[in-house]
Specification:
The chain is mainly beta. The chain has 2 domains: 113 residues, Thrombin, subunit H (Beta Barrel), CATH 2.40.10; 148 residues, Beta Barrel (Thrombin, subunit H). It is built from 4 helices and 18 strands. The strands form 4 sheets. It has an 8-stranded mixed beta sheet with strand order 10-9-14-15-16-12-11-18, with no helix packed on it. A 6-stranded antiparallel beta sheet has the order 2-3-4-7-6-5, with no helix packed on it. Strand 3 and strand 4 form a beta hairpin. The protein starts with a helix and ends in a 6-residue tail after the last strand.
């Protein structure tokens, strides 16, 4: 997409999706969108009482400015409606403090917007790249994508959802289906904020808010983070659902498209490592399509 067209798309997307200029913090069960539990959920909390619940995991590959999540030394994914502008600066940190090694890189004048199906409507998953590979000595990671045997294998798994400002909450993946929002359609993984039901996650249960669009959701696999989602939309209570729902672009569905558009000898790393059977299953992620049209915002 040419730079001029890209700028036009960003302006239209911001208007349609009410995203980018609104930066409410990720909502946590029992604490709201403000503070109260920052010592446990905010990656860069600086108080002496810091007890970050996801300290065991490497979040260095999540960049800010706009949201970027690295999937190779040069390529990242984000939300199409909230992706970084060409030439923008992306900031990364090696660890979970702002003094742990800050690195900044430039976003290249290139991007690819995935489609729900080959030749179909555009989805909200955006593939972008930096102007150069991140040097290995910078200690900035990139994430594999978790590709399981079927969509049902993801349901009920715990996710770590990274949101604004740098807050990490948890939830369970509840559904995978075809979704529509603001003129785009795509495969979505969704999770409810089950205030009335109780999820067993207590204060860590999260709901994505405006300003979170483009941030990642991970599943811990063999002690490390594997990417599964990029935040796309949210909506409030509406029958028959008791809670608010957040929807992410379901990254495993798009692995083939991402690989087809990555150059410089780079491609998506898959976990578990693909066998002949797993490679056949990649196409099977297009399974039962449940059409749901909902009012949404991000």
């Amino acid at each position: 997409m040419r730079a001029g067209m890209r700028r036009i798309f960003i302006v239209v997307a911001v208007v349609l999706c009410v995203c980018g200029s609104s930066f409410g913090a990720t909502y946590l069960q029992g604490v709201g969108g403000d503070h109260a539990r920052s010592f446990k959920h905010d990656r860069f909390y600086s108080g002496s009482d810091k007890d970050f619940h996801a300290e065991a995991y490497d979040f260095s590959g999540v960049g800010r400015g706009s949201w970027l999540t690295m999937i190779s030394p040069r390529y990242f994914v984000s939300a199409a409606h909230a992706a970084p502008s060409y030439g923008a600066t992306a900031t990364f940190y090696e660890g979970n403090t702002t003094s742990s090694g800050q690195h900044q890189y430039k976003v290249d004048n290139w991007g690819f917007q995935t489609r729900y199906e080959d030749g179909g409507s555009y989805s909200d998953l955006w593939l972008g790249r930096l102007t150069a590979d991140i040097p290995a000595e910078d200690n900035i990671t990139y994430y594999p994508v978790l590709v399981l045997g079927s969509e049902s294998d993801y349901i009920g798994r715990e996710i770590y959802a990274y949101g604004n400002p740098n807050r990490v909450g948890r939830n369970h993946l509840d559904w995978i289906y075809k979704s529509y929002c603001s003129g785009k359609e795509g495969r979505v993984m969704a999770f409810d904020f089950d205030e009335a039901e109780g999820s067993g996650m207590g204060e860590s249960e999260c709901y994505m808010m405006s300003g979170d669009s483009g941030g990642p959701s991970f599943i811990a696999w063999n002690g490390e983070l594997a990417l599964v989602g990029i935040h796309w939309w949210n909506y409030g209570s509406s029958p028959p659902y008791d809670g608010k729902r957040s929807g992410d672009s379901f990254v495993p569905y798009y692995v083939d498209q991402l690989n087809a558009n990555m150059e410089f000898g780079q491609s998506v790393t898959i976990v578990p490592e693909p066998t002949g059977v797993t490679l056949l299953v990649l196409g099977a992620l297009i399974t039962t399509v449940r059409r749901r049209r909902r009012r949404c915002k991000t």
